[in-house]
Amino acid sequence: MKVLAGALLVALGLPVVAAAQTQPKSLIAQAVDETRLAPLRGSVSPVTKSAQDEGAVADSFQAGRMLLLLNRPPEREAALQQKLRALHTAGSGSYHAWMTPEQIGMQFGPSDADIAAAVEWLHGHEFSGVRVSKGRTLVEFSGTAGAVGAAFHTRIHAYTLEGERHYANADQISIPQALAPLIRGVAPLNDFNARPTLVSAGKATITGAPGKARAEWTVPNPNGGGELYIFAPEDFATQYDVTPLYQAGVDGKGQTIGIINESNIDVALVNAYRQLFHLPVNSPQVVVDGSDIGVTADSVEAYLDVEEAGAVAPGATIYLYESGGSVVADPLYLAALRAVEDNQASVLSLSFSGCEGDLLQAGNQLWSSLWEQASAQGQTVVVSAGD
Predict the structure, then answer these.
(1) What is the per-residue DSSP string for 190-214?
(2) Which terminus of the chain has fewer CB atoms gathered within 10 Å of its CB, N or C?
């Protein structure tokens, strides 16, 4: 088993810890018995109750990429919380001594033996693309609906909701009892994804005059006095008193902002926006995790976030993180994981909304885990409460 564990870790690109480094106590204390199961309660989306069930999909149905959440040993979880307090407490020896994803994984993650056991179990159920995150609390894997059924004792069903086809697990997820201390949960197996909350008021036409735009719609001013106007970068700088910062040379240069989205963009349109409002040439960079979902209906949110971040901080480097996700995984999970694990952005921004109840326990834990790791790395995370 020691040889197998080491081989799995090397195959996955994980560093094998030197014998001299202390390993935490293993959370798996018994052999895996597939007949003795532990339920992961609250693992069925409540949205399925209001959708029309179209029945189970075929076993050959490709569910795509999924995520397994792992627990840290209690003593390592306590040590991480202490470390986080020190990182953010002025005067402490660790104040702002930010960690890398690899350091977080090696110092606070599960033991090598536990991770190897989880990976071996996934391979045993014919999952492919098994990859352990750098922080060692998430394991990505891919497979068919049949593999999902055999491993997690649930069926993937097709649903119709408001005229759209969706997929979700219909039954409560269960895992072998021996793995329950290690496996915290499975990222929600459905595509009832978070959505942007913006509302489009209409289009605008660019006129011949430089830096001018004419609205094709009017919005009544609730305070009277005529219509409301388009909000340009200089308006933001004036209303939020950012101009003195610009005059002092503070324009975001040296900083990186990561926008987490589920759509790609046409970078040429962003460059045109910057040219229109006399912003310096500074093209955003698109980082695609896995498959490229392309420019989707949610591209308006992507353009808005990328353009406004670049307008307020014209000197900053802007990264757009997007992922094609999978049939049963919100693309935002995978895009956010990539943004945190890349550890390039000093600020991460997410402008999608979803009810905590619809996220299920595992979804809420996943976001908490990602933002916790970002905090240890010195990344500031901003999540909108609405647009």
Answers:
(1) B----EE-------EEE-SSTT-EE
(2) N
Secondary structure of 361-385 as H, E, C letters: HHHHHHHHHHHHHHHHCCCEEEECC
265 residue type, one letter: I
With a cut of 90, say whether residue 206 has pLDDT above it. Answer: no
Q: How far is CA 31 from CA 15, 180, 213, 261, in A?
A: 25, 12, 68, 41
Separation of alpha carbons 363 and 373, rounded Å: 16
DSSP state of 177: G
Q: Looking at the chain, which runs of residues are DSSP E strands?
A: 37-40, 52-56, 62-70, 128-132, 138-144, 156-161, 164-169, 173-176, 183-186, 195-196, 204-206, 213-215, 256-260, 285-289, 317-323, 347-350, 352-353, 380-383
CA quadruple 385, 371, 133, 319: dihedral, nearest 10: 60
Q: What is the pLDDT of residue 298?
A: 84
Sign of the four-CA dihedral 317, 242, 264, 214 = negative
Place of tokens 């757009």: 320
Is the CA virtual torsion 76, 78, 81, 82 positive or negative? negative
DSSP secondary structure string for all residues of 31-49: ---TTSEEEESS-S-GGGG
CB contact at 8 A, 340 and 374 = yes
pLDDT at position 184 is 97
What is the token pair recorded at 102?
């690899």
Bridge partners for 256 per DSSP: 317
190, two tokens: 């459905």
| Six-digit token string for 69 | 């959440």
Half-sphere exposure of 140 (CA within 13 A, CB side): 19
* Residue 75 burial by Cβ neighbours in a 10 Å radius (0-12, 13-18, 19+): exposed
The yes-or-no verdict on residue 375 having pLDDT over 50 is: yes
